[in-house]
Amino acid sequence: SLLGYNTRRATLKIFDIFATRTQAYGLNPVEFSVLSLIGRNPNISHGQLCAELALLAPNLTKILQKLSKKHLIQRLRPESDKRAIYLKLSETGRQQLDELEQVITKLERDAASQLSDQELDQLIGLLQKIYNNT
Predict the structure, then answer these.
(1) pLDDT by residue (tens digit) across 29-50?
(2) Distance separating alpha carbons of residues 14 and 110, to the nearest angstrom
(3) CA 8, CA 52: separation in Å to the nearest integer?
(4) Strand ranges of the sheet holding 73-76, from the earlier edge strand across to the other edge
(5) Which residues in 80-120 belong to E strands, given as ranges?
(6) Which residue in 122, 133, 45 sits closest to 81, CA to CA?
(7) What's the Cα-to-Cα distance from 73 to each of 4, 14, 29, 35, 44, rounded to whole Å?
(8) Cys-Cys crosslink for 42: which of 19, 31, 86, 88, Cβ 3.0 to 4.6 Å?
(9) H/E element holding 76?
(10) pTM for the whole thing?
(11) For 116-131, what is each residue's pLDDT tens digit?
């Protein structure tokens, strides 16, 4: 009956399906989250990504190195501040993110197949209330 226990069990189930269905892409859920946030927020900074995903800077750096080696992201330095680095998806990254989002949307729906669309929307809304309130 514990919230943490039940959310963890559901997360493990979804991550297991994620690993199976996204194996060809070679990204784990956190790496996908970074790719997705960059895709939805072009010119996002390292600091913004760390804050949004609650990642430590060294951990994010390793993820960004991996995404760069796969040619999924680009690093940009604005003329106004040469110290700043902003991130956006490469064309390859955009294509891969589009494909992954389709795969993940289906896998999450399959994982929640016991829920109606309304129940799934309600569950997502309730979980958002928890993490947006802390």
Answers:
(1) 999 999 999 999 999 999 999 9
(2) 9
(3) 20
(4) 44-45, 86-89, 73-76
(5) 86-89
(6) 45
(7) 34, 26, 17, 8, 11
(8) 88
(9) strand 73-76
(10) 0.85
(11) 999 999 999 999 999 8
